[in-house]
Recover the amino acids of this structure.
């Protein structure tokens, strides 16, 4: 049967597959097919495919369906995967264990199932977990061709931001000096370094910085990465006027670090500022904040977009803000 497919060269296949999977448009009912070095990746909705891809209708075979957790329980399921760990969020203990057992029994490649046991807490943004299957909170997560070792018991990591991280890091050039003010295990820093940029990652979480160094080595970019454990406000003397690009992904409290960002910014700097605001005015507060603080700079918002829904009537947003002295 002919179905809509994204058509790419085979060498670009894995990156394209990850992009389509992250965008939730990769069709599970049909097999990915290769012919004469060209890859055909079936998609569910051609209109939802990013504009840079070519769509063709192509004959592909149907895929034998794997057993999924939803096939094994009689209630709606929700979960997310980080490496070979599956995370669920169930308040009912019996239902949580049923779902964990179904996840293990399914065809998902999983070794551990964790249930959220607390909200994100503290300045290190970690949470408590209930281990329902397996015995390790450490894993290796793969995203857009990069590998990130991490321990969910000690560091913060969200796979839901994969597309956004890719959007930002694909813009980076080898000539840039890039500083991630809240770097975690390196999901912005590592791809930026792979583009050839000189990168600095700062984080208060010493365990996260240990993983950042490990991940720089794991992805063969250590020569381009400097990892610093500590409050980013403590590095402004060393990196004053240094950055061509800054990442400010600390959406609940990034507003407290705007002066620090402007101190780190060079004569011209692009700042990726992440915020959580009410849906009635998701971008206005950040614009006003930078206009008030950036006395030495002209401020231009080059892009503003909704990253995801965060809570009822609240949005996680990003503004790409260019400051020019």
């Amino acid at each position: 049967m002919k179905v809509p497919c994204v058509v790419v060269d085979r060498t670009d296949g894995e990156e394209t597959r990850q992009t389509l999977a992250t965008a939730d448009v990769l069709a599970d009912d049909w097999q990915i097919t290769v012919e004469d070095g060209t890859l055909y990746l079936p998609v569910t909705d051609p209109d939802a495919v990013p504009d840079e891809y070519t769509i063709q209708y192509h004959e592909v075979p149907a895929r034998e369906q794997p057993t999924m957790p939803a096939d094994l329980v009689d209630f709606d399921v929700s979960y997310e995967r980080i490496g070979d760990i599956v995370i669920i969020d169930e308040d009912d203990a019996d239902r949580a264990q049923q779902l964990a057992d179904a996840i293990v029994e399914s065809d998902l490649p999983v070794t551990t199932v964790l249930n959220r046991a607390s909200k994100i807490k503290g300045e290190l943004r970690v949470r408590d977990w209930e281990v329902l299957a397996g015995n390790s909170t450490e894993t290796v997560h793969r995203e857009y061709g990069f590998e990130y070792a991490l321990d969910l018991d000690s560091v913060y990591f969200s796979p839901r931001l994969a597309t956004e991280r890719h959007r930002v890091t694909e813009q980076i050039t080898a000539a840039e000096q890039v500083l991630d003010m809240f770097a975690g295990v390196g999901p912005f820093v590592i791809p930026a370094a792979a583009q050839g940029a000189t990168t600095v990652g700062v984080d208060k979480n010493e365990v996260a910085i240990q993983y950042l160094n490990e991940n720089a080595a794991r992805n063969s970019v250590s020569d381009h990465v400097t990892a610093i454990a500590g409050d980013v406000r403590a590095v402004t003397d060393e990196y004053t006027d240094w950055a061509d690009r800054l990442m400010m992904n600390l959406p609940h409290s990034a507003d407290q670090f705007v002066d620090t960002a402007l101190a780190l910014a060079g004569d011209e700097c692009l700042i990726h500022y992440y915020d959580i605001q009410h849906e009635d005015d998701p971008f206005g507060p950040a614009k006003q904040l930078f206009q008030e603080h950036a006395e030495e700079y002209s401020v231009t918002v080059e892009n503003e977009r909704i990253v995801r829904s965060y809570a009822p009537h609240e949005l996680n947003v990003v503004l790409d803000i260019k400051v020019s002295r």
